[in-house]
Design goal:
mainly alpha
């Protein structure tokens, strides 16, 4: 078949082709054009699918990053709030930690000395 087509094309170039040979070449070229057009359409379709898949992958990655960021912020806020609550609880429970009144008086005196020093320093500056 290929030899026949090559021979027909040589005759067409030389101007020696018959009407039947011209029709045969035209039909062959039309069939090739249809196959080529079909293949180009398939490639375009595959390219569109590939682009959609790339967008989906990018979207998944973006959503995963946003979820991680949201989780990080939530844990940070929760931890900060619980730490503040724990420090308040600690301050409340530390009020009555002395069983011995002499120890409580000594700790109170120490706290008042620190407080007095801070006030004197502020006044002198």
């Amino acid at each position: 078949m290929k030899k026949q087509i090559d021979e027909i094309l040589r005759r067409i170039e030389a101007g020696e082709a018959t009407d039947d040979e011209m029709r045969m070449a035209d039909q062959h070229l039309s069939a090739m054009e249809e196959r080529l057009s079909s293949q180009i359409d398939d490639w375009a379709s595959q390219e569109q699918k590939s682009k959609r898949q790339q967008r989906r992958v990018w979207l998944r990655h973006a959503m995963a990053a946003a979820a991680c960021l949201l989780l990080l912020v939530s844990v940070t806020v929760w931890f900060t709030n619980n730490q503040q609550k724990d420090s308040k609880v600690t301050m409340v429970t530390e009020k009555d930690t002395f069983d011995n009144p002499e120890d409580a008086a000594a700790e109170t005196e120490r706290a008042l000395v620190l407080f007095s020093g801070a006030i004197n320093k502020a006044i002198n500056n």
